[in-house]
Amino acid sequence: MRSTHTDVVPIEEPLAELERQLIAAYVTGAGQDVHILRARNDVAARTLLREASRYASAKLSEIEARFQYLHMLHGESLRST
């Protein structure tokens, strides 16, 4: 008998929800709805989503750098992930 794991929550990257929110905020700032934009398949939609993804990536990198800097200031070592 094959079991299904419908009650198991999939493991997600720690900052995945923040990334989604940053992308949604960027898209909303451009006057679009992220769900509608993702359903579209035109060049303008893909371009805006690509820009939003770059924006989110830059913000996440900034957050990571600040986190590491704060830990360095406090003399805490960071384990590599």
How would you describe this protein?
This protein is mainly α and 81 residues long. It has one domain. The protein contains three helices and no strands. The protein has helices spanning 16-29, 34-39, 43-73. Helix 1 crosses helix 3 (43-73). It is flat. The chain starts with 15 loop residues before the first helix and ends in an 8-residue tail after the last helix. The model has no long low-confidence stretch (mean pLDDT 87).
- Into how many domains do the coordinates divide? 1
**Strands, total number:** 0
The major β-sheet equals: none
Q: Which overall shape is indicated by the principal axes computed on the Cα atoms?
A: flat
Which percent range describes the beta-strand content? Answer: under 5%
Q: What percent of the residues sit in helical stretches (DSSP H or I)?
A: 55-70%
User: What is the H/E string?
Assistant: HHH
- Discrete helix count: 3
Cα separation of the termini: 38 Å
Secondary structure category: mainly alpha
Low-confidence stretches: none
Overall mean pLDDT score?
A: 87
Radius of gyration: 18 Å
